[in-house]
Design goal:
The chain has 228 residues and is mainly alpha-helical. The chain has 12 helices and 7 strands. The protein has a 3-stranded parallel beta sheet with strand order 6-5-7, with helices on both faces. A two-stranded antiparallel ribbon has the order 1-2. The chain has a two-stranded antiparallel ribbon with strand order 3-4.
Length: 228
């Protein structure tokens, strides 16, 4: 049996705004989310070819209880916040969320690189105290499927869980999985998407691949990523 699939809610945290209203306003008025890297990290800017980037540089009120926050790295904070906003918009109640009829298709490029870097640094500590510096929740924060797992845990979602991890196509693949799950009757609803966080390790890899823009280092707001 094939069914019609509809989108009932959407949410996003991006360099050009938080939520549909702010994002559309930025797009409509040509507001750029691209900034100069040297202004944020002068030392890093000296070593990378590209000096333009987009980050979340505004405050976000999360309000998550410690019970859930203790397993969240930055990437999972983003994911759980937009999941909360999408659930609130959709009007789905807790009984339905926990019925097994709702699933999650959500991913990230590679979990939380900032937490992973903390783990590496701990093990290279010259005082050899690496094990004592690793927190009990570091793996839950850093693992590739941290976004999907934390969403299901926080919102009591008990249906199928798909944790995509396909670099730049992670979100679109997650949406595709969600579409198939609903269309073919495997789930009645799916929460879909992806999140990533800024970290030096990720930036350096793409920069060394020569996959980052260098033509607008001296005028980041003129980067083609800016819409007019």
């Amino acid at each position: 049996m094939e069914r019609r699939v509809v989108i009932t809610a959407e949410a996003a945290i991006t360099p050009i705004g938080h939520g549909k209203k702010d994002i559309l306003a930025s797009l409509t008025h040509g507001v750029s989310g691209i900034k100069n890297l040297k202004e944020q990290d002068d030392l890093l800017g000296k070593y990378l070819h590209s000096n333009v980037y987009g980050i979340i540089d505004y405050d976000i009120t999360y309000g998550f209880s410690r019970k859930f926050a203790k397993t969240l790295g930055p990437v999972a904070y983003y994911a759980c916040q937009v999941a909360k906003e999408a659930i609130d918009q959709s009007g789905l109640d807790q009984e339905f969320l926990s019925s097994g009829r709702v699933g999650v298709a959500y991913g990230s490029t590679h979990g939380s690189p900032s937490v992973q870097r903390h783990i590496y640094e701990a093990f290279f500590d010259p005082e050899r105290r690496g094990y004592t510096k690793i927190n009990a929740t570091d793996y839950l924060k850093s693992m590739a499927h941290t976004t999907a797992v934390n969403i299901t845990r926080m919102f009591g979602i008990t249906g199928r869980v798909i944790a995509s991890c396909t670099a730049c196509t992670t979100a679109s693949q997650s949406i595709g999985y969600g579409y198939e799950a609903v269309k073919y009757g495997l789930q009645d609803a799916m929460l879909c998407g992806a999140a990533d966080e800024y970290d030096t390790t990720t930036v350096a890899v793409f920069d060394n691949l020569l996959a980052c823009s260098t033509a607008f280092n001296d005028r980041p707001s003129a980067h083609p990523g800016r819409l007019t």
